[in-house]
Amino acid sequence: MQVRDEVERLELVLQRDPLLERPEVVAQVVRVGRGLGPGEDAWTANGRHGGILPVARSPAFAGCAYARRVTDVRRWDVPGRVNLIGEHLDYNGGPVLPLAIDRSVTVKARLRDDGVVNVWSDLPGAAKVTFTTSVQPGEVDGWASYAAGTIWSLVDAGHALTGVDLVIESRLPSGAGLSSSAATTCGIAAALDEAHGLGLDRTQIALVAQRAESGFVGAPVGLMDQLAVLYGAAGHAVQIDTSVSPHTTRLVPLGWEEDGLTLVVIATGVHHALADGEYAARREECERAAAELGIEWLAQATLDATVQLTDETLKARTRHVLTETARVRGAVTAVSRRAWAQLGTILTASHASLRDDFEVSCPELDVAVEAALEAGALGARMTGGGFGGSAIALVAPEKVQALRDRVEARYDARQWKRPEVFAVRAADGAHPVPDASAKLGQ
Ligand code: GAF
C-alpha cells in the first residue's frame, strides 16, 4: 500500500483479552483504492477514522473495577532455546550447552480466590480450559496439561495456591522442538512465585517446571531446557553441568556474530507421534547401560565401556554419550578461541552421532542438515530431543537465503511441507514484563 493510497474499506475486529478484560481493536485493510489527491484524507464513508479506537481509554472505564484488575496482572516473558551441543546428555550426567533465543512465550497471570484455574492460549483452535488447584495427573491433557502440571507440581511441593487466570501467548513455532513447553511451565511457575511471594530461586522454578512435565504430562525430560530458558543471557550460551545436584550453570560468551556468522534454525514442522515413547526408551537404555557398567551416570563411562557391553544397541547409545561429552568440551574450547570452522565440524559430527548411534534423527532433519552444509554452513545438526523438531546451522548471513533455497528445493523434491528457516540470537532468560496497559484508568 502506498502512503498516498486511499483505504476504501476497513474491517474493525474487537478482540477481548480474557485476562486484561479490555477490548482490543484490530484494523484490517480490505481494499485500497486510488492515491489521494492534495488535501484529501482517508476517512471512511461513515466518517469514523480507521485507526485504533481509543476504547480502553474511554472515560467510561475510569475508576472501574477493570482498572484495578489490570494492575494485578503478572506478566512474564520466557524465551525458547536451541541446544548448541550436548544432546541427550542432561539425564546422563553430562555437560550441555544450550542458549535462550529471541523468540518467546508470554504468560499473564492474575490470582483468583476461589481455587479455580482458567487457562487461555493463542494456539489455533484452543478453547479456554478450566480446572482447580487440586488437579491431578490424568485429569487434563493436550496443550493445557502443561499449565495444569505446573499448578499440580507447585501444590505437590507444598505451596498453597488460591486459583489463577492464565493467558499463554507464544511467538515460538509450535512443535518446533524449541522448548515452548519449558517456556510455558517456567513462565507460569515464575508468575505464581511472584504473585504469591513464594521465594523460589530460578533453579527451584526449573525443578517445579521439570516435575510438571515428568509427573503430569508424562515426558521424563532432563533439566536442560528449563535451566536454559531461565538462566540464558543475551550473547551467551549456558553451560550446564548435570553431573552435580543441583546442576551448575555458567555463561559462555558467544562471539560468532562479531565474526560475521549467524545461527539459523530450520524448523521442519515434523512431530512424530512416537516421540515421547522413544525419548523415554532412550533414557531407559542409557540407565540400563550405566547399571551394567556399574556407574551412576552413563557420561562417567570410560572408552572401554563399549567393549564391556555386549548388547549392540546399548553400545551405540553409550558411544554417543561418550563422544558427545567430548564434543561439548571441544565446542566450549572452539567457542572460547573463536575457532568457528572447528565448531562447525564438531556440530556436524554431533548430528552424525545422533543419527547413527543414538537414532533420534529423522529424514527431514537429515536432509535439512545436508542441505545447510551444501549451502555453505560451517556446521549443522539437529537440536533438542529429535524425531522431528528443528536443526541448527552456523552460517554467514549472506548465505542464509541460499541455505533457505537449498533446503526448500530438497524438501520440494520429496513433496514435504516447506520448513521455516530463520536466524536466532542468544537472548536473555525469563523476565517479568511491566504491563504498559496497567497505567490505564489509574
Ligand atoms: C528434550 C528434553 F526436554 C531435554 O531435557 C533434553 O534431554 C533434550 O530433549 C535432549 O538433549 O528437549
TrEMBL record:
Residue span, GHMP kinase N-terminal domain: 147-232
Record protein name field: Galactokinase
Annotated GHMP kinase C-terminal domain residues: 333-412
Listed PROSITE patterns: GALACTOKINASE, GHMP_KINASES_ATP
Pfam families: GalKase_gal_bdg, GHMP_kinases_C, GHMP_kinases_N
Taxonomic lineage: Bacteria, Bacillati, Actinomycetota, Actinomycetes, Propionibacteriales
Family per record: Belongs to the GHMP kinase family. GalK subfamily.
GO annotations of cellular component type: cytosol
Domain Galactokinase N-terminal: 76-109
Any single biological process term in GO: galactose metabolic process
Keyword field: ATP-binding, Carbohydrate metabolism, Galactose metabolism, Kinase, Magnesium, Metal-binding, Nucleotide-binding, Transferase
Gene Ontology MF terms: ATP binding; galactokinase activity; metal ion binding
EC number: 2.7.1.6
SUPFAM superfamilies hit by this protein: GHMP Kinase, C-terminal domain, Ribosomal protein S5 domain 2-like
Organism: Aeromicrobium yanjiei
